[in-house]
Amino acid sequence: MNRRAFLAGTATAGAGALAGCLDAFDSGGSVPEPVALTGGKFDDDHGMEIGPHGGANAQIFYKSETPSEREEGPFWFHTLVFSGFPFYFEHDNRGWEMDVFYVTDYSNVDWTIQERDSGSAMPSPMATETFGDATEMTYVGGSDVMGGMGPGLHPFSKESDAKAFADDYGGETVVFDDIDRGFVENLREK
């Protein structure tokens, strides 16, 4: 093969690879970033204000669906047990295609257990940097520490943090794929 044929072949292959990369980027290859849930935002499932109830928050971006009152952005939730995961299950069954599911990442938060009339509760951080990918978390369910509206499901990006939390406050550690309707229903009954 002569030099000219080699260079022409290389240029064609490079252009094809670049076009493939650009197509992936243009077709939504990037994942949306989480948004801050500050400023008096209300849960898209039950309409309750995010923040005052304590516990982990969630936000779910879908490829083709947005909340009716907003032109873009995620659906957001003030509790995982009573809103975030039930909403996810329901809409997964409807065939909604998820871009990303974010939850509070307590491994990335300097948290302190809050004492409330209803018992001990986790705080409710709402800043952008306090969220992580729900599918990569280790969760503690069934602990003595409440979340928003009652029983908590506390997410940690570091498995060791989740295990330490469970050792201190009870409960069991699970990963995203272990959480189904039955698991969430059992938490609700506690």
Automatic annotation (TrEMBL):
Pfam families: NosL. It comes from the Archaea. Gene3D superfamilies: 3.30.70.2050. This is Nitrous oxide reductase accessory protein NosL.
